[in-house]
Amino acid sequence: MTLLTVPFTFAFMYTLKKSLGQHFLKDENISKKIVGILQQYPHRQLLEIGPGAGALTKYILQLQDTDFRAVELDNEKVEWLEKIFPQLKDKLIHENFLEMDKPFEGKFTVIGNFPYNISSQILFRILEWREDVDCVIGMFQKEVAQRVAAKEGSKIYGVISVLIQAYFDVEYLFEVHEKCFSPPPKVKSAVIRLVPLKKKKEMRDDLSFTKLVKAAFNQRRKTLRNAVRDLFDPLVLQEEIFNKRAEQLSVEQFGQLSYKMKLDRI
After folding, report:
1. pLDDT higher than 70, residue 190
2. 212 shares a domain with 191
3. What is the mean pLDDT of residues 99-122?
4. HSE (CB half, 13 Å, CA atoms) of 51?
5. Does residue 57 register a pLDDT over 80?
6. Is 190 in the same domain as 215?
7. Residues 171-183, buried b or exposed e (16+ Cβ, 10 A)?
8. In Å, how far from its chain's centre is CA 10?
């Protein structure tokens, strides 16, 4: 399906709010590219987070056979979107994404130029809904996108890298220049795609795995033996793997280690 360019001006429509991390995408080619990536994966139910000025929304509304909803917190943007896009009637959720209920029954896809000040929180919220999330296509601050996609051994590999990669395959798709936004942010941006793993990583359970990963990276400069001492019996702590630091362990290694945790510490 060819997406038609739908021009509109940014000059008159609203006040930009720095407190909400608002930097609106104005490059039509980037908008169409992101929605084009969305079309590569079948989706019946679709949620856009933070539609803002509607840069993606206007192209999403051209898609057929899509049950579409968008969540927007800002009162002014909600009023503007409803005025400019009458098709959004009954599709716009005026709430905080981090506090809202799951928007659909069953599987759904998530897309958005995510507010940079809460982008990590958005990912952790998506993790809570992971059983029903088919795909995520999101614009992030470049550094956040790189952390999500980072592999073991990297200095930027951390909690969010491990927890996301335990459940999703992460694809770092492309970077976006500051000039593509209004106003231009002081940082570069990047688009990534998350697709659920076909086979879940081996781990004792989600709770123990998450606790282990957070404890390990909470003191990432220490050896694993010192960082997670309270979670394992002394005999287990003598194993060679505990000489390593958290950033040296793969997602799979964290999963295997979770089986050895003391049950009374989970």
Report:
1. yes
2. no
3. 95
4. 31
5. yes
6. no
7. eebeebeeebbbe
8. 27
